[in-house]
């Protein structure tokens, strides 16, 4: 399954220059599940962006990037920490139309 996700990312990033990946260790390390392994060499550090361990922050970055026309894919390490980022999705992103 991880290889299928990696192939899909490569395909989309090749076809669309607005697709980017944001998350912890997605650059040189290749992500915690190796889905993004080699993507930073293929597409550069601006499209495969390593972030600190701050799920709330980089989820907000992804929402802001989408608002400006990019198509970000946000990768988090584990579900326990991603629950912290749910505020960005449910409250901040959900309230944008209002």
TrEMBL record:
GO terms for molecular function: pyruvate dehydrogenase (acetyl-transferring) activity. It catalyses: N(6)-[(R)-lipoyl]-L-lysyl-[protein] + pyruvate + H(+) = N(6)-[(R)-S(8)-acetyldihydrolipoyl]-L-lysyl-[protein] + CO2. Keywords: Pyruvate, Thiamine pyrophosphate. Its cofactor is thiamine diphosphate. It is an enzyme of class 1 (oxidoreductase). It holds the Pfam family Transket_pyr. Residues 2-91 form the Transketolase-like pyrimidine-binding domain. Transmembrane segments: none annotated. Gene3D superfamilies: 3.40.50.970. Its EC number is 1.2.4.1. It comes from the Eukaryota. The pyruvate dehydrogenase complex catalyzes the overall conversion of pyruvate to acetyl-CoA and CO(2). It contains multiple copies of three enzymatic components: pyruvate dehydrogenase (E1), dihydrolipoamide acetyltransferase (E2) and lipoamide dehydrogenase (E3). PANTHER family: PYRUVATE DEHYDROGENASE E1 COMPONENT BETA SUBUNIT, PYRUVATE DEHYDROGENASE E1 COMPONENT SUBUNIT BETA. This is pyruvate dehydrogenase (acetyl-transferring).
